[in-house]
Design a protein that fits this description.
Layout lengths: L1 H30 L5 H16 L3 H12 L3 H12 L3 H13 L27 E7 L2 E7 L4 H12 L3 H10 L5 H11 L2
Protein name: 50S ribosomal protein L7/L12
Organism: Arthrobacter sedimenti
């Protein structure tokens, strides 16, 4: 029996050592995640942010230096353009090299459309035709489109003929009387 005590103690010591090493490894991995998707995603985001800081000419010059293998010159140019630190410039140029970004012009924010208060003019003329029996009416305007005409038809079919006629006169050059005649042909 005494001969088994020493091997059992050695076995317990090995199990305890393996357990401690396993827990230490888990803590280290939790502190420094090794998920390869996360650095790639942050690098792509960094590349987009870095490209957005550059004008078209600066963008072209940085990528010309990267393509020529002159990483130090590209980092220096990025540093001079943005005024960021050297480490941030190095990371930005590295991200731009790893994830090439096209130059994107800043587009003006789209104008907020008012609710039909002032009709928009389109570069084409829209033709709306309504007929009932032998009577046919046509409205042609560059202030109408499918969406607006659809709203007018919906108003007419829901029974709001006066609202539909007013909307039609706002978006065309016809009189209210002509609009009412046109709407009467839509009213089914």
């Amino acid at each position: 029996m005494e001969s088994l005590v020493v091997p059992v103690l050695i076995l317990l010591a090995v199990v305890a050592g393996v357990t401690v090493a396993y827990r230490a490894t888990r803590k280290r991995r939790a502190a420094h995640p090794s998920d390869p998707a996360q650095p790639a995603a942050s690098s792509l985001k960094l590349a987009r942010t870095a490209a957005d800081r550059l004008s078209e000419d600066e963008h072209r010059r940085i990528y010309a230096l990267i393509a020529q293998g002159q990483a130090m010159a590209a980092i220096k140019l990025y540093y001079e353009i943005t005024g960021e630190g050297l480490r941030a410039s190095r990371d930005a140029v590295g991200a731009l090299a790893a994830h090439p970004q096209p130059y994107r012009r800043e587009e003006p924010a789209p104008a907020v459309e008012e609710d039909d208060d002032e009709p928009q003019r389109f570069p084409y003329r829209y033709r709306a035709i309504a007929s009932k029996g032998d009577v046919t009416r046509e409205v042609s305007s560059n202030m109408l489109n499918d969406e607006i005409y659809g709203r007018i038809r919906t108003l007419a079919r829901s029974g709001d003929t006066e609202g539909a006629a007013n909307a039609l006169t706002r978006h065309s050059d016809i009189s209210l009387t002509q609009a009412r005649e046109f709407i009467a042909l839509l009213d089914d």
